[in-house]
Amino acid sequence: MTVDGLLELGFTAAALPDGKRQLEGVYIGDLLSWVMGRASADYAWITIMSNINIIAVATLADTACIILAEGVTLPKDIIDTANSKGVNILGSELPAYEIACLLYESLKK
Amino acid sequence: MPEGITFRFEVDGSDFTSAGQASVQVKKNLRQLGIDPDIIRRVSIAMYEGEINMVIHANGGEASVTVTEEAVEIVLIDHGPGIKDLSLAMQEGFSTAPDNVRSLGFGAGMGLPNMKRYTDEMTVDSTVGVGTTVRMKVKL
What we know:
The structure holds two protein chains of two kinds.
Chain A: E1 12-15, E2 25-28, H1 32-38, E3 43-47, H2 53-61, E4 65-68, H3 76-85, E5 89-91, H4 96-108
Parallel strand pairs in A: 2-3, 3-4, 4-5
Antiparallel strand pairs in A: 1-5
Helix pairs in contact in A: 1-2
Chain B: E1 5-12, H1 21-32, H2 37-57, E2 60-67, E3 71-78, H3 86-89, H4 99-102, H5 111-118, E4 121-127, E5 131-139
InterPro entries (chain B): HATPase_C_sf, HATPase_dom
Protein name (chain B): Anti-sigma regulatory factor
């Protein structure tokens, strides 16, 4: 499944510069070093962190997208940075667990 | 390239928002050199952790990355406070980062352990009151 495909599941797009990227799994975490140590490339990374450093972490860990849980939003400058660095960011009102359940069902198919 | 290619960076110690610029640039440079994506990921994550450490603890420093035919070598030099107990600092979860840093999602005590995890060789030379030099190598 691609990152674009998440829009059909009700996720909103905050930045989608590379929507064709393939999703291979899911990682949930808010501690950035933990995420860099454990998240695999091409995973969706679910977090509630909303500072600029998430862009660098997603770039370096090479995750397919960031998904902001629980209605967390980003200021415009961070969204602009994500677009310029090619980092996909989606949003959802759901908590991380429910997002992961949704993705689990979709990735199984 | 018998001597290798070296990229050098200044790490700005005052600004978390720009932390990671050197690592992201290294990632780009290595990609242009056609290095394997998994190697690039390991090098750039290890370097980012080092960069963040220099910003949190040492008011910045210098970073250099050398690519030879055998390996990518990263050297990080700072003139910060030094590490009092290196074996403690190497333990996952141990951190001396202040609360304002933790609120940004850093300070999990995973920096040095991640650097070790993602590289093939790592040495840390640190003297309290003088500074710290970290050398890391990822074999190609």
